[in-house]
Amino acid sequence: MRALTLKPGRDAPVRAGHPWIFSRAVAAGLDAVEPGDPVRVVAADGGFVAAGYAHPRTPIAVRVLTLEDEPVDGALVARRLDDALALRRATLTEDVTAYRIVNGEGDRLPGIVVDRYGDFVVCQLFTAGAVRLAGALVDALGSRLSPRGIYERSEGGVRAEEGLGGARGVLAGEEPPARITVVEHGMRLVVDVLHGQKTGLFLDQRDNRLAEWIEGDVFEYLRGGRDRFDLIVLDPPPFVRRRRDLTSGLRGYRDVNLQALRRLAPGGWLLTCSCSQHLDRDGFRQVVAAAAADAGRPAQVVVEFGHPPDHPVALAHPEGAYLKALLLRA
User: Fold this and answer.
1) Strand, helix or coil at 60?
2) What domain range includes position 219?
């Protein structure tokens, strides 16, 4: 593997466990790598720091896979998958047949998401480095899970930044059928993994689907009616997709929460969520509090939710904690 040298003092966050190294922290070696190349990262004094894969033309120059001086290869991918599966066995019940197997940086496989839907597995490979590891990932998934099929649905803005187009198709075995029936919390759900959102279902909202929900355009629906509800669940798309969207995104979150709070019956419950990576937990609480003040509805935070256990987040990687959910009584 090629070596990248960090600027003085830039190794501390990596040694503490943060899985990203930004281009501005690299002193030398980045120009010599191709997108997705495995690299050894060394400190300014030459001491080993980490190993991962690199991209010379994106703000995140290196995505770290290990703090050990070891190859970035199939054996490493297999060990990471074994760790991920062990966590799911320890935290999920047997009656859950749709869940996340690999959650990117949270499972120390950056750029890789793997979801299971019964006998089928759906992968998302977001980076050039993840694409290079695809063969090893497919082999490890096949030997450990024996799925009927492994399917790829790799799309989105991160791939575009990496210089990759969308990729979709069978990686191993059979193509998934048009509909797959899965079970969570005793409920049977029919999922379209070929065309549905993300890999077919918002698996991160499994625990929150024990509530009822209203379907429709949220802004039009909330503004247009007079009915009051005992419970409203808000799970909008990410209004803050990039840091530069923060100002407009905050307006969106404030407005949607304001309209929902106005439609709650006295003593009603609001489960409000944000999946914007660039809006932290404190910022989300503040914008919801501002909406409650505008609505004239004093509110209590009864429970604060994050990711379910099959969506782990690396302790040193707060950016991975994208999901925020507050259960409020107004």
Assistant:
1) strand
2) 207-329
